[in-house]
Amino acid sequence: MIQDVEIDSDYIKLDSLLKLAGIVMSGGEAKEMILDGMIAVNDEVEKRRGRKLYPGDRVICDGCPTFVIKAQQHGL
Questions:
Q1: In this structure, how many other beta carbons lie within 10 angstroms of the beta carbon of residue 24?
Q2: Which tens digits make up the pLDDT trace of 19-74?
Q3: Residue 74 carries which DSSP code?
Q4: How far, rounded to the nearest angstrom, does the alpha carbon of residue 60 sit from its chain's CA centroid?
Q5: CA–CA distance, 57 with 63 (Å, rounded to integer)
Q6: Domains in the chain, ordered, with CATH?
Q7: How many Å apart are CA 6 and CA 51, to the nearest integer?
Q8: Pair type for strands 66-71 and 2-7
Q9: pLDDT tens profile 5-19
Q10: DSSP string of 22-68, one letter each residue
Q11: Model-level pTM?
Q12: Residue 7: helix, strand or coil by DSSP?
């Protein structure tokens, strides 16, 4: 299952994405998951919680849906 996550800035940090997506409740939980190698960005295990994610990046988490970063659409 793939879920889109819209951001209203140029990027979002990996730990913030995990909180926004509801995968973790705190930065400490995010840090633990990341350091345990449970998160992959664009099919590569990522161990930096401050990794900047940009539109088009894919985040895969053990036991969770795949998240794709999307730029927020602005209506006219």
A1: 19
A2: 999 999 999 999 999 999 999 999 999 999 999 999 999 999 988 889 999 998 76
A3: P
A4: 8
A5: 19
A6: 2-71 (3.10.290.10)
A7: 17
A8: parallel
A9: 999 999 999 999 999
A10: TS-SSHHHHHHHHHTT-EEETTEE---TT-EE-TT-EEEETTS-EEE
A11: 0.88
A12: strand
